[in-house]
Amino acid sequence: MTARPRMALALLALALSACLFAAPVEAQTASPQAAGDQAEEAARSATQDDEEGFWEGIVSSFVDFFGGDSGEAGAEEEPGGNPDKPAREKSGTAADGDARNPGPEEARKPGAAAVSTEVVSRQPNRHRSPQHSEAGGGDITPGHVHRATADLVSEIGILRKAMNVDGSPDKAPVLEHRSQVHVYAKSLEVMEKTARLQRRLGMIPADVGHMPVGPVSQDDLHRGVRAIIEELRRVKRQMVVNEEIEPAPLADGKTSSLVYRNLAHASLLLDGLVGRPTSANDLYRHMLRIHHEMLLVAAELGVSLDLDPPTVEGGKETVAVAQQVVRAANKVINLQSSLGMDASRPPRFALEEVTPADVFDATNFLLAELARIKAHLDVRLPGKGPLEARNKTTADVFARVLLVIRNLDIMSNAAEGAG
Q: Does the pLDDT value for residue 402 go beyond 50?
């Protein structure tokens, strides 16, 4: 309502009140009362004051209702205000009013009062790159681990492209009866090659780690593979490679054997980045790691192991080393039976056209089975990580495998005697 109608209503209310009060006032002026009637006059004056206050209250209500400072008018003039409260007075500080009752637009300004963003924060950021929403620790399945290994292979592919590594090794075969502990051992192999690549680039290498001191869960495997991926991404940042992978989908029906194959393929792909294939030095270092794991088991059984490998005359071919590793694998399974364990199945190794990488893979079986024995005996001490080995030959590796076989016999005899 405009100012003129509001003023007219106010004047009308005042006129009505004036008419009502006129008669008593005139009578009071024309006929003065004697002193004895003063009490009656005082009472009449009090009644007059009450009537005036009553009508003045009505007039004030008319003005407040139709005046320019009503809540309705304030809501029309200031969209950001609160229609349930009177609008702030013109003489008030605008900043104070904004801080008390910020409007929708004001709330979005940097200087506005704090506004809850709980609902907004729950909305997905559609500008981010797609990321896996991994399940919690207790919900990790072989499918989650397999997807992580697929992402790992993709990350290696980007680095091979950036470093102009041509060609690709044959796909690793699926090896049956591979369990979670075998997968863990293979992941250490991949992490070790990742660290080797980092050293080649002058970076601080990743910590390879060691075999677990207890049962291996799917969460352990998933965390280990994700750690390798992060190290490879660190390599990408070092090389200023901005290409990102397309995350692999989650699929059902995956097994530890399929996860193992992906890790084996990743290991072969890393050889091109490292600049060389698996060597006799790598095999010798791995046999030293196996030796230290056996020392922990022997201490629990209360026996001493031989420390010096036998002397080997002449050179040895890689296939001869692989044959002795197969013997050692069967010996470790015999030790498990002597300890009353659920023994693993004997592995199947192809002994034709054997490469050092094949031998390294076979020694992973020994490392994993020793970890199972340690878990059975509740041996909580970790084995040693990668050790140094230089200028080693295939014959040196052959001698080390013979030492492992001899010490496995010693531990089996001790286990049978204790049983």
A: yes
For 304-315, write each residue's pLDDT tens digit: 999 999 999 888
Residues 6+ apart with CB under 8 A from 117: none
Whether residue 275 contacts residue 388, with contact meaning beta carbons closer than 8 Å, is answered with no
Other C-beta atoms within 10 Å of 62: how many? 16
Is residue 383 within 8 A of residue 288, CB to CB? The reply is no
Contact in structure between 263 and 149 (CB atoms under 8 Å): yes
Cα–Cα distance between 91 and 80 in angstroms, integer? 18
Residue pair 80/115 in contact (Cβ under 8 Å)? The answer is no
**What distance in Å separates the CA atoms of residue 92 and residue 117, rounded to the nearest whole number?**
29
d(CA 147, CA 254) in angstroms, rounded, equals 9
Could you tell me the sign of the dihedral formed by the alpha carbons of 322, 327, 331, 333, in that order?
positive
- Closest of 358, 302, 362, 369 to residue 334, by C-alpha: 369
Predicted local distance difference test score (pLDDT) of residue 325 = 96
**C-beta of residue 78 within 8 angstroms of C-beta of residue 102:** no
Give tens-digit pLDDT for 234-293: 999 999 999 999 999 999 999 999 999 999 999 999 999 999 999 999 999 999 999 999
Phi, psi of 181 (to 5 degrees): -70, -35
How big, in percent rounded to 5, are the helix, strand and coil portions of the chain?
60, 0, 40
pLDDT at 142 over 90: yes
| CA distances for 70 relative to 228, 318, 333, 404, angstroms | 68, 97, 92, 95
344's CB contacts (< 8 A; 6+ apart) are: 177, 179, 333, 336, 369, 372
CA 352 and chain centroid, separation: 44
CA distance 88 to 99: 12
pLDDT-based confidence at 348, cuts 50/70/90? confident
Q: Which two tokens stand for residue 177?
A: 């009866």
**Degrees, nearest 5: CA angle 30-36-42:** 65
Across all residues in the chain, what is the average pLDDT? 76
Phi first, then psi, for residue 176 (nearest 5°) are -70, 160
pLDDT band, very low/low/confident/very high, at 16 (cuts 50, 70, 90): low
Burial, 268: exposed, middle or buried (Cβ in 10 Å; 0-12, 13-18, 19+)? buried
| AA letter at 210 | H
